[in-house]
Write a structure and sequence with these properties.
The chain has 273 residues and is α/β, with parallel strands linked by helices. Helices cover 38% and strands 23% of the residues. The protein folds into 2 domains: 136 residues, P-loop containing nucleotide triphosphate hydrolases (Rossmann fold, 3-Layer(aba) Sandwich), CATH 3.40.50.300; 66 residues, no CATH class. The strands form 2 sheets. It has a 6-stranded mixed sheet. Strands 2-1-4-5 form a 4-stranded antiparallel sheet, covered by helices on one side. A hairpin with a 2-residue loop joins β9 and β10. The protein is globular and about 55 Å long. The site of adenosine-5'-triphosphate has 10 residues, from α1.
Length: 273
């Protein structure tokens, strides 16, 4: 196996129909003016899996993520979360759905004027009505859960390393005990050891909390080491989806050059040495 430690997966399919679909996108079309970015895209995500979502720069990965989160409008198609069509959900249902989703945006997006603990409490304040003491304890629990020391709670983002910022942002994404977390390039900007540690944390959370993970990534190491399944975005839809093995066997030109190109071969060599 290529790259970093292969902590969890041995190409075990979690997608064979025995697993609950947590998120389904059907024939989703998104356009900005005349420019169609996603064209009848369909995708399912299963409970407890780590799905890696890849595609060329500008292919529409962020647009799809934003569309799933309700931040972009669709032109056509349907998105169901936990079996509920988001377009048909009333305000209360939508709020309940939102509480089941955690999001880590690409650059961590912590509020710079708030401490780590206060950042983690932002979703709690938005959705829950809890006494401050309880919120403080809950936030500390999340901070420890992501492997940060307790004293990180009172620090501001500017006082943290890149890896600590990602962990703090993950703690915030986990604030409401979501069923699914969306991670947008979580290891970008981290050194290989920091990135490997982060991947390991994600796998551990999946294993211990039964979390479902949707991970947009360019990081081949992450794809090889922690993703159960990979979906490749191209030509405005999901071009190929499957296990690492499927990716390595694919003759789709972009998939081939991505997974069997120079960088992949370098990783393979590094892993063998
Ligand atoms: N609000 C918008 N208005 C107009 N065009 C947009 C908007 N948002 C995204 N796009 C266009 O949609 C296309 C897909 O962008 P997107 O950011 O989803 O790519 P990506 O796959 O996430 O790329 P990267 O890997 O570089 O982050 C791009 O051509 C982008 O310019």
């Amino acid at each position: 196996m290529l790259g970093r430690k292969n902590t969890i997966i041995e190409d075990a399919p979690r997608s064979n129909g025995e697993h609950e679909v947590v998120l389904s996108a059907r024939d989703v079309t998104v356009a900005f003016g005349d420019k169609v970015v996603l064209d009848k895209l369909s995708l399912d995500i299963y409970r407890g899996e780590i799905l890696g979502f890849v595609g060329a720069s500008g292919a529409g990965k962020s647009v799809l993520l934003r569309t799933i989160l309700g931040l972009n409008k669709k032109k056509a198609g349907a998105i169901k979360l936990f079996g509920i069509d988001v377009d048909k959900a009333n305000e209360l249902d939508r709020q309940r759905l939102d509480m089941r989703l955690g999001v880590l945006f690409q650059h961590g997006a912590l509020f710079s004027a708030l401490t780590v603990q206060e950042n983690v409490q932002v979703p709690m304040r938005e959705y829950l009505d809890l006494p401050k003491k309880l919120m403080d304890e809950l936030a500390l629990l999340k901070i420890e859960l992501v492997g940060l020391p307790r004293d990180a709670a009172v620090k501001f983002p500017s006082e943290l390393s890149g890896g600590m910022i990602k962990r703090a942002a993950l703690a915030r994404a986990l604030a409401l005990d979501p069923d699914i977390v969306f991670l947008d390039e979580p290891t970008s900007g981290l050194d290989p050891i920091g990135a490997a540690d982060f991947d390991e944390l994600v796998a551990k959370l999946r294993d211990t909390m039964g979390l479902t993970v949707y991970m947009v990534t360019h990081d081949l190491d992450s794809l090889f080491s922690v993703c159960d399944r990979i979906a490749v975005l191209g030509n405005k839809k999901v071009l190929v989806e499957g296990t690492v093995k499927d990716m390595l066997a694919s003759e789709e030109p972009w998939v081939k050059s991505y997974f069997r190109g120079k960088r992949a071969r370098q990783l393979d060599l590094a892993a063998r040495n």
